[in-house]
Amino acid sequence: MEVTRLLWKCMLLSGLCVGTEWSLDGAELVPRARWAEQLSLSLLPPEPAPDPAHCSALLQEFANNSAALSRCLVTMARPVRLCQHCYTEYGQLRATFSRIGSPEQNSTVSCSTILLQSDRVQVIVALSDFFDELWGHSKCENCLQNNSTGILNSTSEFLDSFDSLIRCFNDTMREPPMPSQQGNFSRVCQSCNESYRHLNNLYKELEHTNALCIDLEDAMNSTRKLWSKTFNCTLPCTDTVPVIAVSAFILFLPVVFYLSSFLHSEQKKRKLILPKRFKSAASATNIQDKPN
């Protein structure tokens, strides 16, 4: 039926072109040319368009993913635990955004023209960029496995050590205070010293390998504040003795130099100046040696 209709249109168009005089000086040449152009464009197949129902479903899915990720980020803001608890929601958001820009199944068109490029504000693109920027500044990829499928073993080890140290703080604070100390802060320093050292060493190793994210940085910062300010504990530096020894040696070098120079000059003076008794003996010998 469609083919028959197209044939009739072609025959009508050809009949108009043959049965009518198309002189260059005719007044109806331009209107007829425009009509022929419009008719020829109407015969072209329409451009493929995405399925509105499919695009609407993707829009609703992106809205749900954005709400879930926002809720997780705000909930895990203090203390900061967003990398270890919100990577699933972030992955779902990225997957939905990727589906919006990808063609439908058995089709060559996507919903990007409707959802991403239909207005000046581009709300979906702006939201996606915001979440990507926040995730990038948090450096969460440093603590997650490939494709954000789970937490790295090094991250889990650090978090386990952190939880162990916090339990040590809490358990020691429940004990009765030492009678010779004000409060029980000194007991915390003694009981949790090894746990704190282990956590601090782990943090330095992760920092050296660029395996830190905002979760680990915030955990270590809060721990150091508790250790130094709340409990008034200090971690002795193992390099203190070598530094003091080298500094003392360098400071003592000028003293050794001037002392050796002074002793060396005095020794030369003693060699050059003879005692008086040697002088008198030498004079007497010279007198005896003179000829009579």
From TrEMBL:
Transmembrane portions of the chain: 241-263
Write out the entry's keywords from A to Z: Membrane, Signal, Transmembrane, Transmembrane helix
Concerning InterPro entries, the annotation shows: Osteopetrosis-assoc_TM_1 (IPR019172)
A Pfam family annotated for this UniProt entry: OSTMP1
Q: Name one GO cellular component term.
A: cytosol
Q: Which residues form the signal peptide?
A: 1-19
Q: Which PANTHER family match?
A: OSTEOPETROSIS ASSOCIATED TRANSMEMBRANE PROTEIN 1, OSTEOPETROSIS-ASSOCIATED TRANSMEMBRANE PROTEIN 1
Name used for this protein in its record? Osteopetrosis associated transmembrane protein 1
